[in-house]
């Protein structure tokens, strides 16, 4: 009766009536593709109640216990499910077919399953043909024996196969056994079955025994392949997460992040986000008002960086890649690039002990440097530290520090270099005219910018790898059980080097990493592509051969970074990326400043304070100080000006910073 009830409910007028009712309802498509409106309310993160006008399908087979316990009020509707018509899934757990989530392990398992199916089908087709030919073979042998007993010559009588005795599967199996001669054998089988059928049957029987023996040997390889790839086939995140990480360090993405920093700072929802790239995403800012000494008053981005990160390991991987793809002469250039630029910029200890140069120039000498002609003011010695001494040189545009290798030669005493300017004690610049020691500002080209971003991403991913290895419980247990076990992180670096050198493929890389660490394998397999991109960027910087001149400009450490920018633009008009690092805060800042854009050096959001009452006004201030600009909100250009714009409040107020006399501070008549 229950089966009959199911048939009656599932078919006939009642079923048609229910189907018609659903079609007439508002929600004719799957609920995940419908605009549910306000009647459907989220219950949890992944479950939503049915709309009030939704007609659920009838299920009369439920018992009272099932109706009481089974869910019939809400359905699975993840918040990251795509809108109607789209096939992009923000969460990799959302299964949308094998092709969307198949990884290398599933590819191997599917290939093994295909091979197993092909072998089984060939054996079964052969066996089916044998079963079909066995009675025909017995009949042919019986007829031949009967003719022999009757004294008739063999072949006197003509026999033909009955129509339908062999179907297309049997004919195909016979033809497959004989290969290229299969069609000819089929013709003989049709014309002379008495003589051909026993021969064909014997051939099929031999192949059946041969193929079954081969299958036993193949089973060993198939079993090993399925065992090796079974665990990895469950990691559906690795492929999609690795793909997202690779997107995050593409050149187009990195350039877009810097050039559109203002848009991303105003609209954070436009920033491409993914769980795999959470630790690698930069922070976007319009201005940095909390630390005005940095002078970051234009849209920029910031990334975290620390000297405690594995910089040595990162550069070791870069050298492995460059030695593989670059010319031999690049090896020495890379070493110089590391010691003269990367390590000083990031404040890293020297990889090779620097040769401490002897003092060649004395205060008062006129010298020619990579940034212009100037006069040596003093020598700054670090008391025998790792950092060599520097020269304090006064130029026409200001005073700054210069490395010894930035000075070319001494100029004759009669050559005019810079006019005598105000200086402090012992010819030093006045206090406050130099940037803090832990702040470096570099205006670089696109190649330098890409290398900086990719290099920071590389050390960040290596730092994450060490953290993942340290938090892996299985790895910790193995180390406790076997204290003499080798360092897992060093083993990981060795595997990555093999992948960079091309000794292993991507699947082998993932397999070896999975054997070391069971969790978050996508962080490890994404490192070799990042090394390739960072190595290409480093080669681009070396081929461009502008980084040292730009770096010398940044080491002047002038307070007026406009002068640093002008010097950098004189080196190359492509120095449009501002890169700034603050050692004490472990941050690196990047901004895009094309030549036509003015560099803002004052906070555009600062408000000009109203003047106090006349009776409480302070004494006149120093004539060198200037009033703040309250009109800086107009595009940012007014903020960079040192004088208040016309028509602003500051311009209308009386000048409180100059003495109210008939002449100005220089003694001239106004």
Please state the CA-atom Rg, rounded to the nearest Å: 40 Å
What's the mean pLDDT score? Answer: 76
- What percent of residues are in strands? 5-15%
Proportion of residues in helical segments: 40-55%
| Strand arrangement across the biggest beta sheet | 3-4-12-11-10
Quaternary structure state of the chains depicted: single chain
**What is the number of beta strands?**
12
* Dominant shape: elongated
Per DSSP, the total helix count is 23
What does this structure look like?
Residues 82-93, 419-433 and 614-670 have low confidence and may be disordered. The chain is of the alpha+beta class and 670 residues long. Strand 7 and strand 8 (399-402) form a beta hairpin. The strands form three sheets. A five-stranded antiparallel β-sheet has the order 3-4-12-11-10. The protein has a five-stranded antiparallel β-sheet with strand order 8-7-6-5-9, with no helix packed on it. The protein starts with a helix and ends in an 18-residue tail after the last helix. It is elongated. It has helices spanning 2-10, 13-24, 64-69, 98-101, 104-149, 168-178, 182-191, 193-230, 237-248, 251-259, 261-266, 311-325, 330-346, 446-471, 473-481, 488-500, 506-516, 522-525, 527-544, 547-554, 561-571, 637-640, 649-652; strands at residues 47-49, 74-76, 283-285, 300-304, 366-369, 372-380, 390-394, 399-402, 407-410, 439-444, 577-582, 587-592. Helix 5 crosses helix 6 (168-178) and helix 16 crosses helix 19.
